[in-house]
Amino acid sequence: MKLNEIEATGGGRVKQLINLQSGISKENAKLVTKMIKEMKIKVNAQIMDEQVRVQGAKKDELQEVMSMLKAADLDFPVQFTNYK
After folding, report:
1. What is the widest separation between alpha-carbon atoms in the chain?
2. Cα–Cα distance, 12 to 22 (Å, whole number)
3. Which residue range is the domain that position 36 belongs to?
4. Distance between CA atoms of 58 and 43, rounded to whole angstroms?
5. What band does 7 get if pLDDT is binned at 50, 70 and 90?
6. Residue 39, domain CATH
7. In total, how many domains does the chain have?
8. What's this model's pTM, rounded to 2 decimal places?
9. 43-71: buried (b, 16+ CB within 10 Å) or exposed (e) per residue?
């Protein structure tokens, strides 16, 4: 979510344009996959459209990747779905 400047309109009102982003950009997806590969864990990270898919044989390895991404200081929010 990117907030633009607040603009005065008239009659004591203001407006602000907010840009919402769905998915992840290609640059950010490449950064996430690079971070995962640097962990040297037996998981497979691949970019699929606007998301990064991580597959692994062990649930513990996937949870380790999730905790690393949560702890990382990224400029964008991360969300995890459909994990088991």
Report:
1. 61
2. 33
3. 23-75
4. 9
5. confident
6. 3.30.70.860
7. 1
8. 0.68
9. bebeeeeeebebebeeeebbebbeeebee
